[in-house]
Design goal:
Keywords: Membrane, Transmembrane, Transmembrane helix. This protein is mainly alpha-helical. About 85% of the residues lie in helices and about 0% in strands.
């Protein structure tokens, strides 16, 4: 997570400069994490209980992830430590960038593919 935070921070300071890069990073990282968590929770819920989770519990999970990340990074000042230590994956900038972009693409793919897969599971196994 340190790696993701650092490279999201670099993105919002160098490529898309922002007034509040730390807040933007926490928000974006939380949203990306919530796409994955909500998608997996919905697929597991359908697989085990044949129950499709409605939007409001998913929004609650998203809010909880945002609050948790706010506590972890902003309140504890961990963000400053991460920026100071400049973490790298396997001591390689290229590996770190590839990991960050892959995480971003995977989380975006979850928001697109999870509903279709959930619908497929509901029609196939819960009818």
């Amino acid at each position: 997570m340190k790696n993701l935070y650092y490279y999201y921070y670099l993105f919002y300071t160098k490529i898309l400069p922002d007034d509040q890069p730390h807040s933007t990073v926490i928000f974006c990282l939380s949203i990306m994490e919530s796409f994955i968590v909500n998608g997996l929770l919905n697929i597991i819920s359908i697989t085990i209980f044949c129950y499709n989770i409605p939007k409001w519990p998913m929004l609650v999970v998203t809010g909880a992830i945002m609050l948790l990340n706010f506590q972890i990074y902003y309140r504890s000042k961990k963000m400053e430590k991460i920026i100071a230590e400049k973490p790298k994956l396997f001591n390689s900038n290229a590996a770190s960038v590839v990991f960050s972009v892959t995480f971003f693409l995977f989380s975006l793919s979850m928001i697109v593919t999870a509903p279709f897969y959930s619908k497929y599971l509901l029609e196939r196994f819960c009818s």
